[in-house]
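Bench log. Compound arrived from synthesis this morning; before running ITC I wanted a structural hypothesis for how KG4 sits in the protein. Inputs:
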Amino acid sequence: MNENVEKDVLILAIESSCDETAAAVVKNGRTVLSNIIYSQIALHTLYGGVVPEIASRKHIEKINQVIEAALSEAGVTLKEIDGVAVTYGPGLVGALLVGVAEAKAIAYAAKKPLIGVHHIEGHIAANFIENPELEPPFLALVVSGGHTHFVRVEDYGRFDIIGRTRDDAAGEAFDKVARAIGLGYPGGPKIDKTAKEGNPEAVSFPRAHVEEAPYDFSFSGVKSSVLNYINGCRMKGEEYSQADIAASFQKAVTDVLVEKAMHAVEEYHADKFAIAGGVASNSALRAAMQEACERRGIKLYYPSPVYCTDNAAMIGAAAYYEYKNGTRHGWDLNAVPNLKLGERYKGAV
Ligand code: KG4
Ligand code: ZN
């Protein structure tokens, strides 16, 4: 056997930080052998948002099935796995704990290394799955339901956060506005669809900028502005168009994201830009980013929608590089609900 040929690394990855119970088997950080997602969305829709206690209970109910399905679809046994990876933060503590406890139990029983992964690191790594040529350094914008981060990916597992939201996350703003205009939960995909029928110039919502922090965001102003607009219409007894509001709100958010992204691209002389997280599947954001990047001769990366929203394949992709860097966690690994990107595990909190 040629000793220069590196052995394949198979990671079993688990993700349970919010309302998706997910497991995947990923080869060498880039090839997804299976990606099983049990979405709890229908369950939480009844309440208009994620109910943490219900999420944890459902994770407990589904996690074994989801892991078994991931292994069987990949056609591998636990014996053939090189490491067990799990999201240990940030996220809902009760939800994270289910995945962490499960991963520890499997890793211990199967005598495999345990690799705790940061959820945002996973979202960024989702871009590696379908883009074999993508390697750090690059700039990334992570826009999800819980996070809005501008990140310089300096190397695998090495990040420099250059900006973040001061209040609501981008996806949170989509969800709140969707609820206000009667589209329901989850708001992002519904606004995306409804906006296609509307006029993005119909209502002028504010483009928020944060003084002296060019890469920070604030989405609570645009959300309040939508609420004020609706209340104004109601008081005057005027009808408003759901589609026009959806399109105008979406334009206000994407304008800010694209403008800041291009500002960063210029300042950091980036030639690659990646978007990640649930909101990265927004069709208007993708189109606007694509156009802006093409104009500057920059390559834009984004994952397929299934790898944008929460999944375990992205955790397996990130875990591969952590594994290669020597990251191994002990049986004391605990959920860290407010884990910072790039932070090393400091023990139970
Ligand atoms: O990444 P994700 O699954 O979970 C978190 O880590 O938070 O992101 C979920 C968020 C939700 O707020 C959802 O409304 C938003 O992503 N989202 C979208 C779209 N699809 C999902 N927002 C805008 N347009 C979409 N097509
Ligand atoms: Zn997420």
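What the model suggests: Residues 242-267 form the longest helix (26 residues). The first strand starts at residue 10 and ends at 15.
ITC booked for Thursday regardless.
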